Amino acid sequence: MFTILTGAQFGDEGKGKVIDLLAENYDVIVRFQGGDNAGHTVVVGGKTYKLHLVPSGAIFGRRLLIGPGVVLNPRVLWNEIQSLESEGIKVDLGIDPKTTIIMPYHIELDSLREKARTEKIGTTNRGIGFAYVDKVAREEVQMGDLTDPALLEAKLKEIAPGKEKAILDMGGDPTVVRYAPYIDEYLEIGKKLKSRIADVSREINIAILEEKSVLAEGAQGAFLDVIHGTQKFVTSSFTIAGSACANLGVGPVMVDNVVGVIKAYITRVGEGPMPTELVDSLGEQMREKGGEYGTTTGRARRCGWFDAVLGLKSVYLNSYTEMALTKLDVLTGINPIKICVGYDLDGDTLGYPPESTTDLARCKPIYEEVPGWTEDITEVKDYDDLPENARDYVEKLEDLLGVEISAVSVGPGREQTIFRDMEEE
């Protein structure tokens, strides 16, 4: 069985927790895009783990893979492996040799470029975009290069002059490109990771043929996709479900399930349009109650009402077979609750987002109000025990999106998740 899981909004939907819950039912967990600009938080036994590159499922000893569509900072990965193993967690990880390496000069270029922008994108300054640029330009350092000093030296000899000039032209320090301590550090990490090199496409395909179960884990969310997201306020990779096949080297006919993760409201980190954003005390209440601060940057997330217009487009982009709804508990005590069911753009009513990001920024949300609830739902174990208004809210979102919501999260802990038996409803 091959399942793909992605975020259905702007990222930060709670994918880490959902994947962590699903991991017990899968043999292999694989990351297919993004870099350490994305973070996922997993809470197990009261202990919190904040990961950026190691796929979810590490806590349970599953086989973990990082595919060649990922851009990888070896320092970050090695630190995460050491941190987990210091807690007695064995990390069974394979890394594709074609995985692009984020070099120190990528981080320098990223920082310089963002500072120079008149209109900020809100980049995490982790070199993600510039690493992807080099991948497309065929000027990348790959994971396999870090295991062979001669290969890395040859690559840098070819790449370095252009990078040094680019950094100098932007007012930065070009010596970062060939700074020996950095290169030595990367080679040392490469030596330590050499035994973890794996042909990810081959391993996944063999696992599927052997009737093992594989879960492909996406980073960020649908509307940060480099093509289909809110350009230019997007990430540098393809975040939608279909890209898992291309990035991992697995044919689309192998896909059995596509799971989307949505938050009971919506959040966004960084710049870009967000029609339902709440810039008032209610938005602040959601932020504080939901702990809406970025795992990677610590930046406050912008909060707003659930946007079913964007949600519908996400369903189209990903072809979800089911969805998981997170942070329903954050809405407790809010009455009424609003759901965006349409946009007003210059007097025209839209039921689907406009293609233009500029037009999206001008859209005014059209809301439908539904009654809230006051009961504490954080200890509820069965769906039927949720307050009627909470169930009505879940089912309203289900109707608007046209996809079954199979799991509902009512708190950060693993045990605070309600799985619905859809066949009985």
UniProtKB/TrEMBL annotation:
Family: Belongs to the adenylosuccinate synthetase family.
Primary enzyme class: ligase
Cofactor note: Binds 1 Mg(2+) ion per subunit.
Xref: Pfam families: Adenylsucc_synt
Main localization category: cytoplasm
Subcellular location: Cytoplasm
Reactions accelerated catalytically: IMP + L-aspartate + GTP = N(6)-(1,2-dicarboxyethyl)-AMP + GDP + phosphate + 2 H(+)
GO cellular component: cytoplasm
Protein name per its UniProtKB record: Adenylosuccinate synthetase
Binding annotation for GTP: 11-17, 39-41, 301, 327-329, 409-411
InterPro entries the UniProt entry points to: Adenylosuccin_syn_GTP-bd, Adenylosuccinate_synth_dom1, Adenylosuccinate_synth_dom2, Adenylosuccinate_synth_dom3, Adenylosuccinate_synthetase, P-loop_NTPase
EC number(s) reported in the record: 6.3.4.4
GO MF term (any one): GTP binding
Organism of provenance: Methanothrix soehngenii (Methanosaeta concilii)
Keywords from the named record: Cytoplasm, GTP-binding, Ligase, Magnesium, Metal-binding, Nucleotide-binding, Purine biosynthesis
Lineage: Archaea, Methanobacteriati, Methanobacteriota, Stenosarchaea group, Methanomicrobia
Classification via CDD domains: AdSS (cd03108)
Cofactor(s), by name: Mg(2+)
Any single biological process term in GO: 'de novo' AMP biosynthetic process
Binding-site list for Mg(2+): 12, 39
Binding residue positions for IMP: 12-15, 37-40, 124, 138, 220, 235, 299
Residue numbers annotated as active site: 12, 40
Job of this protein: Plays an important role in the de novo pathway of purine nucleotide biosynthesis. Catalyzes the first committed step in the biosynthesis of AMP from IMP.
Pathway: Purine metabolism; AMP biosynthesis via de novo pathway; AMP from IMP: step 1/2
Subunit annotation: Homodimer.
Annotated binding of substrate, by residue: 295-301
